[in-house]
Amino acid sequence: MARPIHLNGTDLTLGGDRVFLIAEIGKNFIVTEEDRPLSEYLANAKRLIDLATLSDADAVKFQTHEVEDEQLPVQIVSPHFKGKDRLSWVTRNTNATPFEGFWKPISEYAKEKGIIFFSTPMSRKAAQKINSLDLPLWKVGSGDVTDRVLLSYLKSTGKPVIISTGMISRAELDSVVSFFGPEYPLTILYCVSEYPAPAESFNLASLEYIKEQYPDITVGFSDHSIGFNNIALSALKLGATIIEKHFSFSRDLWGSDHKVSMTPPEFKELSEIIRSKKYMEVDAIPFYGDCNREFEGATNQFRPYFNKGLVAGRDIKKGEKITSEMVYAMRPRVALAGVPAEHVDIVIGRDAKADIKKYEAISADNIN
Asked: pLDDT for 352-367, tens place per residue?
């Protein structure tokens, strides 16, 4: 049986008797294509926290960006959001969320409202930026599960970590579980990274596979489907104890994730069904699938856009010994020919064979 994970400073646990409901606000405080003042982003974020609280969410989750060590200065557009190239979008999110003007007041506001606040840092610098807020846990997006630069930092904090399977294989999940070790407070969310995810794409038997493979680890479900509750409810019936859903004012707004989000009335309806345990009446067979099937993430179309490679985080001189601080793990992997982010250990401690410019890929050609 999975070990419940106590969240410091709260009376809630991951993997406890109460289903843990996460309203993922993410970047949904941005609702227009044109830039808006910081005050508007802050007001939108606070209003979303209000609505999540009224919808009976246990937690609100945001996404934290720091463009310097996340997105390479190359032009690339992800198929899931064609409204902006990735560099512009990540840059906008970085600039829209300064620590003092956004993250600190948002954290304090959530505390006032009595709801758990945490975030998905999209890079090591993003995590460092908000770590002082004393978040009770971290979420790692599925595109970053192989980012050992980020994961090493998160592990050093000792805080519980939630990871999603949406862009990883079973072997990659096994590798990251081994990386954290058997005693680390880790949670796994089964996820299909399609935006939105159609009903036929789900293989909820993966929940049982995860539970059998990692019996001490709490298991949940991150759901990108829209329009019906039966998939999330089926996940609960099959043993998930955490449900994460994107959360927005409306699916008609401009931005990357509004279209796959629940509205407050929809979230409230889902919450009421869950709290009454009516999910036990749901027929899970249509979404069950095959317990032996590989995760959808192994061949997910977004992997080349969201996976990362290793680059120099500053100019490195020939002969310098490379330290972890000199290395960034950055997107998109498709634009990098060097060492993948999961293999950072083979780079640290090596000497630079030649001068390496900032943002140049680190490869066998430029390290000894």
From this structure: 999 999 999 999 899 9
